[in-house]
Each structure stands twice: as C-alpha cells, then as structure tokens.
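Give me the fold.
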Amino acid sequence: MNTTKIQIRNLYKIFGANPGTVLPMVRNQGMGKSQLLEEHKHVLGLQDISIDIQAGEISVIMGLSGSGKSTLIRHLNRLIEPTAGEILLDGQDVMDLDPVQLREMRQRSMSMVFQKFALLPHKTVLENAETALRVRGDDRATCEAAARKWLDRVGLSGFENRYPSQLSGGMQQRVGIARALTADTDIMLLDEAFSALDPLIRTDMQDLLLELQTELHKTIVFITHDLDEALKLADHLVILKDGAVVQQGPPQGIVMNPADPYIEAFVGDINRARVLRAGTIAVTGEPEGRLAGEVDWQDTLETVIKKAGGRADVSVSVLRDGQVAGKIEMSELMLALVPYDSQTNNSSGF
C-alpha cells in the first residue's frame, strides 16, 4: 500500500509587490494569469495546486516553459515561499518550520539535482560528492567512504581526483546524482536534471536513474519539459499549464484518456507503440486467435507487435510476476495506437 510522503494542498504563488492583496482576485474571482499581469502587474506562478506525492515513487511534473514546474519544486524545500497553501512532509507543514528546523530538513530529508550541475569548480569530484555530509558535520572517513561508494555506483570510480572542468556534461551530472545519493535523504528533487545533456547521454542518465530507483525506492520529484522523458520515468505524472494542474495520474492513463484538448495536443504526436505498456491494454479472458507468445506486463506495445510478427489475427498472453494476467488481441491493439480525438470522441476504448 502506498504512503503519501508529500502533500501539496491549494498552493498559490503570486510574484509582485503585494501578492496578498491580489490573491482574492485569483482565488475567489477567477482572475487568470494574463489579466492579473495586465491589470495589476503581478505574475501568477502557481494556481491552486494540490498533489499527493507517494513514498518510493517517481513523480514527474512537466509542462512548457513558464508553466510553473520549477517554481513548484522549489516550494517543496522552501527555496520559494508560497503566497498561500500547505506543503506537508510526513504530515508536518513545512511552513511551520523555524530556520533551524528548515536547515535540518534540507540537509537530512531532501537533496536536489540541478540542470546546470551546480558543482563547486575548485573542488574535486570526491569533494563535491562529499558536500552534503561535510555540511552536516560528519567525520572525514564517513564522508569519503559514502562519496566513493556512490561515485562508483554512477560509473565514476577512478575520477575522484578530477575537477568538474575536466569532465563531460554527462559525467558532471553523474557527480550531481552521486552527491544527492551521498546525502542519503528519503527525497530527491531533480529540476530539469537531464535537459542540458546530449540525447544519448540523456538516455543513459534516465536508465541510470531507473536502475538506482529499482534498488533504493527513493521518493523522487522530477521536473521536465520532455514528454518522452516523463513517460519513461513517471509513476505519477502531473502536467501544468499557466501555473495550474491540467491533468495528473498514471502516465499510461493520461496518454489513453487525455482530459482536454491541451493534453490531446501534448500526447498526440508521441509514438504510442514505444510508450504504452502491455498491461495498460491487457484484458482478461481466453485468447480468441492463435496464441503467438508471451510478453511481460511492463513490455511496450512495440514488443507485443514484434512478438505477434506483425499479424493481426493472433493473440499474445501478458504475464505479471510470471503468471498469466491477461491477453491482447492484436486486432484490438491497433485501436490503442490511434490517438484520442475529443472532436469525434474516438479513443482506443481501453
């Protein structure tokens, strides 16, 4: 059973000289972002955000530039103070923390990985990875042992005495991840952590994160503007527009059933065969056509199509934990590959 680690409740952020004065116009009168800026010279950063972030899952928050995603993640550790709302960490409102408690939370409960790496240029790779433990006051041996362990796990063993300028962008970001892991916090915040990397390196970093998550089960909040990245990483996906949540839920469900035209446009051009999982469209019952083979619940529809050899008159069994949990009729799979269209109310039907 999932446990809620972070609860965000009715969160608002307004930037400007008098945010408290204009808040009722947004909250009670429904004033939008453009009108607030034009008439009152205030910027609506976040509007009535409510999200539950589950322990041990990757929650991905995505949206276009200016949607509020980076503003939101910086509220979790109070790098930005909200105009209104609650942020509960294990049931405690972080807004009630005094400066000492807040510093303790940042050091022991949350670590952060930035898009621009944020490494100290005058420190070695090892010294950068040790940073969080050094700040906490741990002894040198403890800091070094933990840093070496995680540098090795992210593939940087042997680079401990190099400086950031001597590393590639992908290697620098590995240092950032090792630093966050060395901090040994339950929660990791990654703000566009892979966005500055080349595509192949970015894919490697995504795979590394998923590999580590399989073992560590951290609570991860990941910010991105890339839908493919979001769908690959997310257990729970939140899509923002103009500071408000447009849709949230399991990523497969969002692809299959977009809530409005904005989400339809977002997911309309993706390769659904590479994104959708077999378990998303599997149904119970005996196969109707010739059985072509078996796939895993988490396999993509691309894998299912390959297993079927491209034939439309066969079925594929879907396994979960080694047991048959459903089937896919290839004739029905074709419907899942057709994007939802609200104008014709046409969806895959799953």
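The chain is about 40% helix and 25% strand.
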